[in-house]
Amino acid sequence: MKKKDESSVTSTRKAIVTLLKQHGPMDAVTLASKLSLTGMAVRQHLYELQKQEVVEYEEEARPIGRPAKIWRLTALANRWFPNGYLQLSIDLIHSVRATFGDEGLGRVLEDLKHNQIIKYREHLSDADSLMDRLQKLVMIRMNEGYFPEIQEQEDGSFLFVQKHCPIAEAVAVSSRFIDNELELFQSVLGDHVTIERVEYLLSDGPSCAYRITDNQGL
């Protein structure tokens, strides 16, 4: 593909993602009308974006004909948009470290973790089993942009997999975020659970993954 064609494809896909961001879920026909393109052309772009896990769809019944695919953005679509708040957060981390040193930064991040634990525990308060807690944890982390999933293993343990790290730039500034994440999960899932990090996205792994084992039945 020529450079000009590649630029055109990227521009069109960016326009599709932007429309879905601005107007919410819609079908390919509506997108095509807004972009002055054919429905077939838009569908080709949507399927490529789906392969990149940027968009997904649900089928919606229509009075006549086949169900329509209603396309929406996934959490991974956030990477297509500038994040001024993230840069502000990074600048704040640098400022806290410069003013109060590593010890002061550690105290700030410890307080942040404490507040997260309180919030997460509120969401998990009515969950009885480990699976229930993990499913609720998935919902929380999905809303925060981590694109998580649970994979049940043959030995009865679970893999908690996060395919995106929305705070990757902040983690690069302070590795304390990594330790805090593990401690956060341990605190909200319970002392009877063993949690081990087995994959790390920022170390060239395809995801961040934690092996979670319930020791109550052992």
Shape: globular
CATH superfamily of the largest domain: Trafficking protein particle complex subunit 3
Average pLDDT level: 89
User: Which architecture of the largest domain does the CATH hierarchy give at level 2?
Assistant: 2-Layer Sandwich
The description of the largest β-sheet is: 4 strands, antiparallel
Radius of gyration equals 21 Å
Query: Structural class per helix/strand content?
Result: alpha+beta
Q: Assign the CATH topology of the largest domain.
A: Muramoyl-pentapeptide Carboxypeptidase, domain 2
> Which CATH class of the largest domain?
Alpha Beta
Could you walk me through the main structural features you see in this protein, from its secondary elements to its overall organization?
- This is Transcriptional regulator.
- β3 (148-152) and β4 (158-162) form a beta hairpin.
- The strands form two sheets. The chain has a four-stranded antiparallel β-sheet, covered by helices on one side. It has a two-stranded antiparallel ribbon with strand order 1-2.
- The protein folds into two domains: 3-80, Arc Repressor Mutant, subunit A (Orthogonal Bundle), CATH 1.10.10; 84-217, Trafficking protein particle complex subunit 3 (Muramoyl-pentapeptide Carboxypeptidase, domain 2), CATH 3.30.1380.
- The longest helix is centred in the middle third of the chain and has 41 residues, at 84-124.
- α2 (28-35) packs across α3.
- With 218 residues, it is α+β, with helices and mostly antiparallel strands.
- It has helices spanning 3-23, 28-35, 39-51, 84-124, 130-143, 168-173, 176-189; strands at 55-60, 68-73, 148-152, 158-162, 193-199, 208-214.
